[in-house]
Amino acid sequence: MGARGPAPKPTHLKVLEGNPGRRPLNKNEPKPKPVAPKCPAWLDKEAKHEWKRVAPELEKLGLLTIVDGTALAAYCQAYSRWVAAEKVLTTEGMTYETETGYIRQRPEVGIVQKYLNLIKLYCAEFGLTPSARSRMTLPGEDKDDDDGILDW
């Protein structure tokens, strides 16, 4: 059984947000090497394209480390599957007619919803949404840095 409550936010994200809760930061949190992992060869074409689009930006912001490859690969693959399902809906429509004449929702509608939810979760983890970024302040940008927060 897992721990109760929401998952703790990584310290680097708390620092970027200015530690809004003012709780003590974990000074002993593991700090993996801040280097982008290599794009996995098994990702499909669309997922690799998304990797190449977001990985350099995440690395520049210090939000991507050598051990984040699996999470980023999962995000990219979810993105790719979402795009594939959206393409089907664009060409085939949202519904289809059964052999007996009933109008049914295409399975791709559920697939789109499933992968959009996954993408949303991964985007929040990596700070890839406007709301996630609005809560962040990058180190070195704040001239008034007397709040006692660790510099990364």
N-to-C terminal Cα separation, in Å?
33 Å
Strand content: under 5%
Shape: elongated
How would you classify the helix and strand content by structural class?
A: mainly alpha
Give the helix level as a range of percent: 40-55%
> How many strands, which pairing sense, and closed or not: the largest β-sheet?
2 strands, antiparallel
Number of E strands? 2
| Radius of gyration computed on alpha carbons | 20 Å
| Overall residue-averaged pLDDT value | 84
Number of helices: 5
Low-confidence stretches: 145-152
Query: Within the largest sheet, what's the order of strands?
Result: 1-2
Topology as H/E string?
A: HHHEEHH
Please characterize this protein's 3D structure.
The chain has 152 residues and is mainly alpha-helical. It has a domain at 11-19 and 43-134. It has helices at 11-17, 45-60, 69-92, 107-126, 130-134; strands at residues 95-97, 103-105. A hairpin with a 5-residue loop joins strand 1 and strand 2 (103-105). Helix 2 (45-60) crosses helix 3 (69-92). It is elongated.
Question: Which descriptors would you attach to this protein?
Answer:
152 residues; mainly alpha; two-stranded antiparallel sheet; 5 helices; 2 strands; elongated; disordered C terminus; Phage terminase, small subunit; Phage_term_ssu_P27
Task: Summarize the SSE layout with pairings.
Elements: H1 11-17, H2 45-60, H3 69-92, E1 95-97, E2 103-105, H4 107-126, H5 130-134
Helix pairs in contact: 2-3, 3-4
Question: Brief overview, please?
Answer:
Residues 1-38 are annotated as: Disordered. With 152 residues, the chain is mainly alpha-helical.
